[in-house]
């Protein structure tokens, strides 16, 4: 290897490691844009907006900082969050999901909760957690699990619940339009932490929520008792827990549902790692979520084989996996 080749390689490697080191900047810049209402103003405008009009509309930006806005804007353009035509900006299609008024579904609350300093802090303890014997990084920082911390932080708990409600709406729409069969012949459904049928969640999350029509709220723990139903929906639940806890949850589900001949089943919405394999954006989202679960809850995402093992251990006989929910799958499990 010649000297010039090796220095080129070294400089390339330097830039690559810089980009790992600086990778927090892209999410911080997007959070800043959301906190300044940039997606909301662009979304409301509905067509490419001149930077001077945008600056005028951004009422939170102090006049002394307006001259810094183009730096933030060009970064967001480079990273694909915004589109730019000369001095005019618009939201890239995916970024519309961060506008408050985006119809039916938005990711604003998820961004704000994940980037809340309370949720950020445990990331700084990840390596300490690997070296201690505490159950989660949240225990390492706060002495309690994330769900208990929410009890003392109602603002964070509400933002988290809003993020989950948004996600549930999107998933429910896809299921109702593209997987109608899963709701056929269902006379009752328990949705853990969700928003349809009988909703089971921890008492401090349910608080004084009142149901209406077919919607009913029950405060309690799925480790103790899950209300009886034809089917139990576990959306983004299992990846929060260790294998041992998942088997306990599955066994509780089995106690509360009838046999297969009477329509008993579980509907699980969760990741099946590397499925679908070909889409790098979806697979990247899965590994990001895997790390998120590790840090927040000492939970994890699972491969098809790992899911099968859990179902076997809990006494279920068959599972059907359908890749229809982006980075997640629909998993139907039968006793
Ligand atoms: C990641 S969220 C998913 C919520 C919902 N299924 C959705 O996808 O929108 C996990 C939920 O489980 C709830 N939870 C945690 N521990 C629980 C327990 N022991 N029993 C019942 N729910 C619990 C949390 O309060 C939270 O609402």
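^ Assign residues to that structure.
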């Amino acid at each position: 290897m010649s000297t010039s080749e090796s220095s080129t390689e070294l400089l390339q490697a330097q830039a690559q490691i810089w980009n790992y080191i600086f990778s927090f900047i892209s999410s911080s810049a997007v959070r800043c844009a959301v906190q300044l209402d940039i997606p909301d103003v662009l979304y409301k405008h509905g067509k490419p907006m001149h930077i001077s009009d945008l600056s005028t509309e951004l009422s939170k930006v102090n006049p002394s900082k307006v001259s810094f806005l183009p730096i933030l804007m060009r970064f967001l353009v480079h990273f694909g969050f915004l589109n730019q035509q000369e001095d005019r900006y618009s939201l890239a299609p995916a970024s519309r999901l961060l506008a408050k008024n985006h119809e039916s579904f938005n990711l604003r609350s998820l961004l704000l909760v994940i980037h809340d300093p309370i949720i950020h802090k445990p990331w700084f303890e990840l390596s300490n957690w690997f070296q201690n014997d505490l159950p989660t990084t949240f225990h390492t920082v706060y002495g309690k699990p994330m769900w208990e911390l929410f009890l003392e932080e109602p603002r964070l708990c509400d933002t988290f619940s809003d993020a989950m409600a948004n996600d549930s709406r999107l998933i429910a729409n896809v299921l109702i339009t593209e997987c109608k069969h899963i709701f056929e012949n269902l006379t009752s459904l328990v949705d853990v932490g969700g928003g349809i049928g009988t909703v089971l969640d921890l008492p401090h999350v349910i608080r004084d929520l009142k149901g209406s029509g077919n919607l009913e709220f029950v405060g309690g723990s799925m480790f103790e008792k899950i209300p009886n139903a034809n089917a139990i929906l576990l959306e983004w639940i299992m990846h929060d827990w260790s294998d041992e806890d998942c088997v306990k949850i599955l066994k509780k589900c089995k106690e509360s549902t009838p046999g297969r001949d009477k329509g008993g089943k579980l509907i699980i919405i969760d990741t099946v790692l590397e499925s679908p394999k070909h889409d790098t954006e979806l697979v990247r989202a899965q590994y990001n979520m895997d790390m998120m679960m590790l840090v927040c809850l000492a939970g994890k995402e699972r491969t098809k084989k790992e899911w099968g093992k859990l179902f076997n251990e809990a006494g279920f006989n068959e599972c059907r996996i359908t890749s229809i929910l982006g980075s997640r799958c629909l998993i139907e499990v039968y006793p």
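Strands lie at 49-50, 82-85, 88-91, 189-192, 198-201, 216-219, 231-235, 265-270, 318-325, 328-334.
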